[in-house]
Amino acid sequence: MKLLVIDIQKGITDSRLYNFESFIENTTQIIKAARDNHIEVIYFQHDDGPGTGFSIGDEDFEIAVQVTPADREKVFVKNINTCFGNKEFVDYIKNEDTLMIVGLQTNFCIDATVKSAFERGYKVIIPQGANSTFDNDYMTGEVTYKYYNDMMWPERFATCVSVNEAIKMLE
């Protein structure tokens, strides 16, 4: 198993996110459990391209301080929603079978990565409360979160488990 920490970057990691404090707490607990049990933690940063303010060299592009990678943890950059758009990452995990996914945003990069992983035959595990998103023109962050975590992913694309269950899976 590998733990993917997706797009928890300075420019989007703040109180605008649905259930922000709980999201950070749950995510940091899962990262700690993975590290404590020698499960590899792999980070991703989304790059919107030069001049967007959310690209390599921009402060908002940097990984948020709450989830700073440890020494020697891999960090991949992607420029499309799914992590599988990065060929180096795809090659790196080709012999893996299970991916636990946490991060931002539920309805963009998390959803795209969940479905891409499922289509490639990976077992996907989603810890509840360890992904989040913002309000949008159509749904609140809460409704968006529940749509994916409670309706879209379970029994289709992923196994959705409590944080405690996720930690037990990492042990």
TrEMBL record:
Keyword Hydrolase carried by entry: yes
SUPFAM superfamilies per UniProt: Isochorismatase-like hydrolases
Pfam families: Isochorismatase (PF00857)
InterPro entries: Isochorismatase-like_dom (IPR000868), Isochorismatase-like_hydrls (IPR050272), Isochorismatase-like_sf (IPR036380)
Keywords in alphabetical order: Hydrolase
Residues of the Isochorismatase-like domain: 3-138
Family recorded in the similarity comment: Belongs to the isochorismatase family.
Keyword Secreted applies: no
This protein's name: Pyrimidine utilization protein B
Highest classification ranks of the organism: Bacteria, Bacillati, Bacillota, Clostridia, Lachnospirales
GO MF annotation list: hydrolase activity
